Amino acid sequence: MRRLLLAAACGLITVAALAGPVGAKSFGGAFVDDQVYRVFGNAANVPDGTGTDPFAIFTNSMAAGQLGVAEFAPGSIGHHGGRWAIYRATFTDQGDPTELVTSWGELQELVLAGDVTLTRDPAADFRCPVLGSPEPIS
To answer: Which of 37, 64, 74, 80 has a 20 to 30 Å separation from 127 between CA atoms?
Structure first.
């Protein structure tokens, strides 16, 4: 009987893990180091301006498949578990809004070149785990 209960509990844990966090809102995916990770938004109190991990959302990208770009993923040195500090990434007149940006390093290069501006949006900070087991999903 004990083995049956243990097997049932393990099965429920597996189903819950595959389904995503309970009560979480799916945000689709985000790029981290040229890989796509699945992301969920949890109901969590994240006061404005308290995000710690940089996450860029594009305001005027015309690239097919452009997702948000995060600096960290699970297992990355510096990752704080998805307490995101939101930045608005906007292509300037000299930038190419059709360029697909898939890493924080690439985004930083575009900012240094003057092709993209990054503006901190502390009111948009949120908590959202990045999942992939911990590998990326694609």
So the answer is: 64
* Contact in structure between 62 and 102 (CB atoms under 8 Å): no
Residues 24-41 have pLDDT tens digits of 455 578 899 999 888 766
Question: DSSP letter at 29?
Answer: E
Please measure the distance between the N-terminal and C-terminal CA atoms of the chain and give it in whole angstroms: 40
Residues linked to residue 90 through DSSP beta bridges, in sequence order: 117
Range of the domain at 111: 23-131
- Look at residue 100 and give its three-state secondary structure: coil
User: Is 12 within the bounds of a domain?
Assistant: no
Residue 17 placed within a domain: no
Supply the Cα-derived Rg of the chain in whole angstroms. Answer: 17
pTM score above 0.70 = yes
